[in-house]
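Two folds, back to back.
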Amino acid sequence: MIFSILLAVLVFSLLVVSHEFGHFLLAKKNGIGVIEFSVGMGPRILSGVRGGTRYSLKAVPFGGSCQMVGEDDDDDSEISFNSKSPFARFAVVVGGPLFNFLLAFILSVVVLSLAGVNEPRVYYVSEGYGAEKAGLEEGDLIRSIDGHKMTLGRDIELYFLSHPMDGSPITIEYERDGELRETVLDPSYEAYLTGFSYYASEDEAAITALTEGLAMAEAGAKVGDVIVSIDGTPIASGLEVQSYFEEHPLRGDTSVKFVLERSGKTLELSVTPTYYQASTLGMEAVAYRNKEAGALSVLRNGFSEVRYWMSYTLTSLKMLVTGRVGVENLSGPVGIVNMVGEVVEQSRSDGALYVFLNLLNFSILLSVNLGVLNLLPLPALDGGRLVFILIELVRGKPVSREKEGMVHTIGLLLLMALMVFVMFNDVLKIFR
């Protein structure tokens, strides 16, 4: 847990310092005085002044800050934030989120250089499903879906997150052997299911999972039961289960008789398959199976990664606003610590390189999230400040500082209330 906390602090501090460094560089570029640029919070442990700016390393290694002249007071000197043109102030405010996107791009290039690019190439087609009927094959490169360009394998997943399948035909443009082709895929899928999983191997046909509410679970089967026979046909392996159902497709008007072995005893179950209807592509192209690529491809895909996570963040916000996901799904610092711990734990068995790569991927997501969220036109955020600057450009004069300050103060209080709720919810998740 302590290790996860340290890693989370390191990741979060990198993102915040990058954000504040963007404000700092644009402030200096536009002649705005910076009182202090600090890494960390709390009392100073190292500090020095250069060029009129105090640079500090503080005791609590969490976050950082960039304090500019006149940012939160009525200082009207020529080096104050408020004395500069709206365009200069706009550049300074947008500099923070911009540097979050820049950091995400740099981290993406590192990940892609080590792990390769994630292209939308089909690597598995399920027999009998829409993809096979539409003529798609393993190795096909998906170029677009319903006119929406696919650059990364994960773009397919993201597209259907924001455009849920409803059974309507899907137009897919793909490339095969250098030739661009187009097909129409019917995602509708109907079947009868018994609701159990097993390994199609030469080992004994043990049930590895059961779907609650479906026929096999309702009949009394349990995970670990070994299938001995089906409708009187002896079964010695998972491969034989697979072969049996290939030759005897399930029907809704005919029950299937299973003989199972459990703890040395046998039991018979009569199972009537459950009708199942869904929409699915019937193929896999979203996998995180990466392809080695040259320097130009890595750089190009670095931009695609940042664009993907920006789209992912905006899609998630849209789902939050429309009620498709609830506020209980939001996470704050406590949740981030927990997620960092999960990332490390899930990657540890694969080796240090995978832990490193997954942490970088998580950092890319958080960095883009921080950049996008700060650009939202909400009080107390960078986006809220940009709104007031845009109003000033339209009106030809600024909104009074008192009124703007009041709006930001109210927004800050609401933001803090949301943070308290999110933190409380994060703590509850740990104990569930």
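---
second:
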Amino acid sequence: MKKPNYAKTILACYLGNITQAAVVNLTPLLFIPLREQFGLSFEQLGLLIMINFVTQVAMDILCAGLVDRYGYRIFGLSAQVVVILGMLCFACSPVLFPAAPYIGFVIGTILFSAGGGLFELLLSPIINGIPTNGNKSAALSLMHGFYAWGQVGTVILTTIALALFGRTSWPYIMLAWTILPVCNLFLFATAPLGSPVPETGEKQPLRKLLRIPFYLLCLATIALGGASELCMSQWSSAYFERAIGMPKLLGDMLGMTLFSITFGLARTLHGVYGSRFDLKKLMLLGMGLATVCYLSVALSPSSGLAIAASALCGLAVSLTWPGTLAVAAETFPMAGASMFAILAASGDIGASFGPWFTSVVTDRTAASAWMTQAFAITGLSAEQLGLRMGILASAIFPLLGFLCVLGMRRLAPKLQQGIR
């Protein structure tokens, strides 16, 4: 019997992660244009991010058992379709909802986020299930590295397009990005995708996993990793433009783009050389470094130092999400797609709560008269102070992530000895 050629499968997963990057990062790049054109508050903008990830959480949880039952293909095709519909709705919101475009933004976000949730549910177990002689954690990191490169491409191309065609061109830019899910629709229709259920051995029920402290730490770690990643990546564009006072093109290219580049490089290098290093130790060092980076971005009086810290943060947070997935997959090999779904849901909870938390702290600080007076000596405007305090408060996420990874390292030897 001829063995399946998984080259198209791998390409579909890589393109799926690039599409996921566009789904997650397009809206933050449009924060200032949308705020200026429609008078949206930072909290409304932050709520769009929260809706994005809450929707992904819902899809992860609702569809986990269905994927185990019906297989990958139908859900892979559905993911592309709803992403296309969501982007179309978002781009056409001013026409579809002229009196309240924000309604269209919410509906569009729910639709393309549903597709994003399916990507998260499907891509990691598909890659993990492909026969390989290499290291599984490295294969997962390499695949997730394409999310990072998709983020780089999304930032660079969108920022350049906004600079060339003006901020009011954002609907056409959103429409142009639909080419990604359109192309991937054909790949998922024909690629060999394997089975989500292990072919040998007894499948480990999710209810048992949820009683194991090590797995609960995995859930907490990926949630805090998602928050640590998204707070910086989602808010750096607005932060460098409004808090630091840099032109949008320069702030995006030096801040958000450098974050994405270091983020992608770290995942790609781990995908190539990952088997040589202790993954948990790398994750621990990363969360510690990310904490320092958040403090540096928020407190630094130098724009150069703030940008350098933001870029370094991309390196620091890069391995937490794929690293946690790899550790869980290695520790619980018979758990099936449901384990990945709940991990992805937990990561999405962190990724939704983190940027929303940043937005709430930003708006509340900016609106607080006593805070503005207390920090008047700094010479910062209310908006600048709010953005700095939002990033400063968000340093709690990598700090807690550091403690969770430390707990994972201490529990791992006991788990290997069979102690649950």
